[in-house]
Amino acid sequence: MIKNPALSLLHPVGNNLTVPLDIQTLLVAVALATAFCAAARLLLWRMHLSIPGLGRWALAGSAAVITLVLILFYGKFQWRPSLSFAQAFVVMGLLLSWDGFRRFIGKPALTPVVLGGISAIGLAWILIAQTEYLIDDRGVGNAFLMAVLSFLIAYDLLRSPQGNMPAIRATGAIYAINTVVFLIRAVIAQGSPEIIDPLNPNGVAAFMLLWLLCSMIAITLGMVLMTAERLQADLNNQANHDPLTGALNRRSFALLYEKAMAYSRRNQRPLSVLMIDLDNFKYVNDHLGHEFGDKVLCSFVAVTQKTLREEDVFCRFGGEEFVALLPNTGSESALGVANRLRSAFEIDSALIEPKAGHEPLTITVSIGIAELKLEEGFEALLSRADNALYQAKDNGRNRCEVAG
Length: 404
What we know:
CATH architecture of the largest domain: Up-down Bundle
Radius of gyration: 31 Å
Number of helices: 12
Distance between the termini: 92 Å
Largest sheet: 5 strands, mixed
Strand order of the largest sheet: 4-5-3-6-7
């Protein structure tokens, strides 16, 4: 009979005889698969050096390979300290993975204090358990520490701002399952040191190796897909945004204003547009240089993004001309928004340092406002806002005018 019913699926049964899995063969297979995964991570990093976190993933894969080599060494020579070294590399690999995922999703990297503190706790426990020959305690402590690190990785991935991306969600789910697996292993390890022996065919060794094989492949695939999602998002961003200022370009703006107009008519809600132009911008470029002019444009976009609401649509229409679309906003409210924007940029532009030898100058904007009329097309709406902008220019610049 099988001593551990939980492992019955891992043992072919016939004529009341059991044939345990060959742990050494399984261990070699898992080590080879892990080496291939580590090579894939290294190649991924070398192909995309500019993406943060990929180098940490490659190092974590190398740590996993070293872990399995040390376990193989233990199986060959029965030198128990090799298991302690293997556990240390497991902790190191999870720490590197955690740091890599945080860098990838834009969170701060782990500080040396955090890295050193967790490493010191893990190493101290492993050394104490090895010195005192507390095999079961070492297994419990190591499994619990791996469960904690897996939980922290899962938490960061599933709660990240990019957590709606399928690859990030799937990779986070794998680490969540890993948390449960190692918690169960920690419970099983209490008082039963032989059941967690990595070479015991009647223990949990076969299950843990199979889970390690599946999770390693799944996590590496998740890393590849996360990188692909990141590259696709970058391509979409380049296609939809102005490369200098980061504002929407005319192509993406055309798609959004159609939706905004349809919503406005369907729900009978007001919709206003701001046509914005920087005053005397040709003088800025001619006398202070295009580099300074680019700095002014970027500064204006930064001020605008702070002033407008999240649902407002803002785009660089061309040169120094910009357009803002304000849903659920009538002309009077839009005039208030335009004046706040004009005043904010007038203050901010005075802080821009000019080139050496030039006096500081204040750069202003003129804004034309128009509210959507019944059955009016967008080109007609934009034309009325543009006429209001010219009126603001004719009336002395640095002012806002509402279309009649």
